[in-house]
Amino acid sequence: MIGKVSSIKVVHITRYSYDGKGGFDGAINRWLSENAEVEVLDIKFSSSATQEDTYEDALIIYKPAQ
């Protein structure tokens, strides 16, 4: 068991891009820098695309600082 459910939190970061250019890692790294005191348990990532659009999502699972 990772931990008590009441002590686990999540944050969802999403990015939509019509031109397919990067920069999504910057959003994730920014959140991690701004929340350096948390304990990251896992990061789930997904992406999808159409001919015109790109969608990227990350779910950061973490324990808040004590």
Can you describe what's shown?
This protein is of the alpha+beta class and 66 residues long. It contains one helix and three strands; from the N terminus they run βαββ. The chain has a three-stranded antiparallel β-sheet with strand order 1-3-2, with helices on one face. It starts with 8 loop residues before the first strand and ends with a strand.
Strand order of the largest sheet: 1-3-2
Average the pLDDT over all residues and give the rounded result: 85
| Structural class by secondary-structure content | alpha+beta
Determine the strand fraction and express it as a percent band.
Answer: over 45%
Order of helices and strands: EHEE
Terminal Cα span: 19 Å
Layout: helices, strands, pairs:
Elements: E1 9-17, H1 24-34, E2 39-49, E3 54-63
Antiparallel strand pairs: 1-3, 2-3
Which key terms come to mind for this protein?
single chain; 66 residues; alpha+beta; 1 helix; elongated
